[in-house]
Design brief:
By secondary structure, the protein is mostly helical. It has four helices and no strands.
Length: 145
């Protein structure tokens, strides 16, 4: 494993970020964080922002990795079920369809459904202003006049 050289200033900043984030997670405000770490309120705020940016970057990197892992897992299941589905096994067909739906969701393959309210746009169906409604009214033994 390659060692990364870090300057003392960067090491201190990373330690302050970690402490600031821990205090923030515990419900401390920026003034309190600043007091406990010996920095000003604005520095405490910047430490929290930097910590959160680092956390977001790590999450985004791992999301792609996790998505690829999940798709690979689904592909493995699909490979085992597909031959049974091709032979007409109804349960296997159902599972293959569900795997396909999950895969499409993970990969963003499903196009969003376009909806429009009546009269809500140029291509929306026209609003009907006149309509004739017919009711069946039985005679019930009464004579019509």
């Amino acid at each position: 494993m390659k060692r990364i050289k870090t300057s003392p200033a960067k090491t201190r900043r990373l330690e302050l970020q970690a402490k600031a984030l821990e205090l923030r997670r515990g419900g401390a405000g920026f003034v309190e964080i600043g007091e406990k770490l010996g920095v000003g309120k604005s520095t405490a705020h910047r430490l929290i922002e930097a910590s959160m940016a680092d956390a977001r970057a790590q999450i985004l990197a791992s999301v792609d990795e996790l998505r690829a892992e999940e798709v690979s897992r689904l592909d493995g299941m699909l490979a085992k079920l597909y031959p049974k589905a091709a032979e007409g096994d109804v349960q296997a067909i159902d599972r293959v369809v569900k795997i396909g739906e999950r895969r499409a969701k993970l990969l963003g393959l499903d196009a969003p459904v376009r909806t429009a309210l009546q009269g809500g746009g140029e291509d929306a169906p026209a609003i009907v202003t006149e309509s004739k409604v017919m009711f069946y009214m039985p005679n019930n033994g009464r004579e019509q006049a």
